[in-house]
Amino acid sequence: MLNYIKSELYRISHSKGIYIFDGVCAGLLLIMNLLLYAIWKDTPSFMYATTAFAFNFASIFIGVVFILTIVMGCIAFGDEYKNRTIGNSIAFGSSSVKIYLGKAIVSLIISFLSLAVVLAIFIGSSYLLLQNSGPDVLWEFLQNYLVNSLILVTGVLATLTLCFLFGSGSAATWGWLILFRGLPIVCQLLGLKFSFFIRLNKWMAAEIIGAQVSGNVDDLNIHWLWQTQDGLYRTLMSGALGILVFLAIGIVGMRRKEM
Question: How far apart are CA 234 and CA 240, in angstroms?
Fold first, then answer.
């Protein structure tokens, strides 16, 4: 499996997709900081040209990062069925389950590296261009991503698993959106009549990640769900259960799927 992982990392590192994706994400965050800086220089009384505002704003959109895990899963999958490379891997002695697990490891490696690079550029530009609000806001920003990391991993693995089961990135994308965006809406509607679905909806990953208890980005004083004891427990458990469920589905599905 190690050779397969190395070959996949080599393939992805020599493709344009991952660099374009990272460049767009980092570029948008950099543009935001540049705009805040430009407004501040033009209007010195502008109160939002601070690292506190930038980090809170980026933290609010962690739900968007969760959706972008679809892209990372599809990049790792790389149209295996369309290009028929999976057949070559099996022919050289790799089982379908090993291929799936190898892809899962690769997807997590490239996702971690991509997120690290984008956040490093964003944090560096924030401190370079904006007023420093102190180390506490940076630590809270990093904590937000650290605590929600299991949910982000769930998003990547869900995409990869659906890619293998459905055979294409487009079908996996629709499946992902139905599971993580459509299902919570259905639970909310059913919750109007059945209380069980209200409780179930509180455990949905898409409803947990980025959820706030109080505050807003304007007053720079946001209290996140994960900062409460119950919220932290639900955040970690939702992510851990999601990882186990999709890994199990992927392994069982690949064993039964005809290649």
Answer: 10
Give the pair of three-digit tokens for residue 155. 């998003």
**Length of the chain, please?**
259
pLDDT band of 87, cuts 50, 70, 90: low
- Cα 152 from Cα 64, distance rounded (Å): 11
Please state the rounded mean pLDDT for residues 86-91.
53
Please tell me the distance from the alpha carbon of residue 227 to that of residue 90, in angstroms, as a whole number. Answer: 46
Residue-wise DSSP of 127-164: HHHSB---HHHHHHHHHHHHHTHHHHHHHHHHHHHHHH
Cβ atoms of 55 and 217 closer than 8 Å: no
- pLDDT tens digit sequence for 204-214: 998 899 888 77
| Residue ranges in the chain assigned as alpha helix (H) | 2-13, 17-42, 51-60, 62-77, 80-83, 85-91, 96-129, 135-147, 149-166, 169-177, 183-190, 195-201, 205-208, 229-256
Q: Distance (Å, rounded) from C-alpha 15 to C-alpha 13?
A: 6
